[in-house]
Structure formats: structure tokens, C-alpha cells
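Hi V.,

You were right to ask for the full record rather than a summary. Here it is.
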Amino acid sequence: MKVAQLTKYSKKDPQIEINSIPLPKLKPNDLKIKVTYAGVNPLDNLIAHGDVKLIVPYKVPVNMGNEFVGKVTQIGSNVKKIKVGDRVFARMPLDKIGAFAEEVVIDANAVATVPEYLTDKEAATVPLTALTAMQALELMHAKPGQTLFISGGTGSFGAMAIPIAFAKGLKVITTGSTQKKENVLKLGVSQFIDYRTQDYTKLLSNVDLAIDTLGGKELEKQMSILKPGGIIVSLKAMPTADFAKRMHMSKAKQLLFKLASRKIVQMANKYQVHYHFIFVHADGKQLQEVADILARAEVHPIYGDIFTLDQTKAAMDKVAHGHNKGKVLLKIAN
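Predicted structure:
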């Protein structure tokens, strides 16, 4: 099968090659899936640049790609709930990525069936962002009635996180451009703040929870609007010792991240809030819950430019330069 592989890490010019390799042997709990579309994410560039080596130290060559949609062509002997011909999607397991491929072999516990109303293009945009939202809310022990602030909620993350949070009974507050205000209000936002004309730090206080999608200076601003004991989960800032422990990393890495995140932890203590970092993992059960939520709300995710497998490097470059109208996709098969 053809697959896009990272053959050399580089900050400026990572080497991506399209190679033919044998498909892994099917184990009893595995599925073989013909991939139709794969989502291209900032995470793919972080991996190629070597920025997540401390979290997941992939050895090159490594098959690239973290999320996909496709059709099941073979099932392992222990698989009961999924059958040949089912349309499924998934976030690839951390230790076995490789969605930029004609076929994948993946543990059945990592996948979920795609809601009928979603096209393959739409479905390919869902797993990574939706699971990130689910796992952030789980980490925060979010409860119905609590307030949740999502920075930049008019982007692709907000399109997934807002309906999920709304379905779980949270009151969602977000910032964004007024051009997309109506879109997020339909998804369940309780309060919308125009980031161009309004300063959310002057409008908000005593917020229960926050999901940080921006990092940098925005992190402290978001901490400042939380109530004492509030919780913030960051997708962009610095991993902590607690994160390293959750990921079952070595004591050395736990110490390393403790030192690296010292300033952020001190900042959190200053505002009397709890800070966490998240790196999303595969979870078919959670993704199936997401699928059911999206189906009830009939949320249609937005996708952007579409490239072929042979154009993987160009697709990753497109994501790296930003300003995309929706998630960039690779079309793998019809």
C-alpha cells in the first residue's frame, strides 16, 4: 500500500516521502480499513518538526497522519460490534499513527461508526478535535450548569467543542469574529464576545472552566477570568509533571516537565486556579458518543482545501501557513 512517511525531522523542511510498504498483519481485535479521506492537522507539522518528541518519540521512517474516515474491509476474529462494509472514523492510537495511507490496520476499540448524515469529507474533520474536546471536559470533571470559556470558538475546534459542551449541559462563552457569530450561537453558545471590539477580561469573571486554544499571553488572560478553584486545560501551552504522569512517562521526563512548566504553575497559583495540558488519545467509545451528539444536532463540520496522498507535503505546508477556511483534507480513495 502507498503511505506518506516522515523520513527526516526538520524545523524548516521535514522530509515527507510517498512509499509502498506492506500492510501490518491483522490481529484478533483489529480492523482493516480502506481510507477515503484523512484530516491534516497542526499536530502533523508538530510531529514532522520534532516538537513533540518528548511526548511521543517517533522513530523515522514513521507513517504520518492522525485521523481518517474509511470503510471496513476485514475484521479480526474477536471483533463483534463492527462489520465489513461499515463506515468508520478514528483518531489513530498515539503509538501507531499512519492515517495518510491507502489502508490502515487499527484496534477496533479506537474507531466509531460514522453518522449517516455526514459525508466522508465532513467525517474526516471530526475525530481529533472532537476527542480533544471530550477529553478536556473529562479532565476538568465538567458538570451541567457550569460555565465554560473557549477562546476563538469560531474555528474548527469550537465547531466540535461547542455542541459537545452544550449537549453536556454547560453554558458556553466564546470569542470570535462577528461574521461567524450566528453559526456558533446555533451550536449552543450562551454568550458571544467580538474579539475585535471587546476585551473578554473586562466582561467576564467567576468562570468555572476554560479551554485554551491559543497559548502565549492569552493563557494568563484566561486564568484571570476564572473563579478561585477554576480549571483551565490548554491545547497549546506547556506540559506539566502531572501530564507526564498521566501519560506514564519516565520520572526523568516528569521532572523535566515540572521544571519547564514552573512559570505557568506559579501563574495558576497566583490566580488560585488549576492548570492542565492535554494531548489527545484514541478512544472509540468517546468518539461514538460524539457521533451521537453530532447526529442529534446535525452539525456539519467545515472542511477546506483537498489534496491527494501524493500532495501530502503541500497539504501540511498549507496547514502550517494557516488562514484555512476549514480543515485541510487528503483524498485517499473514492
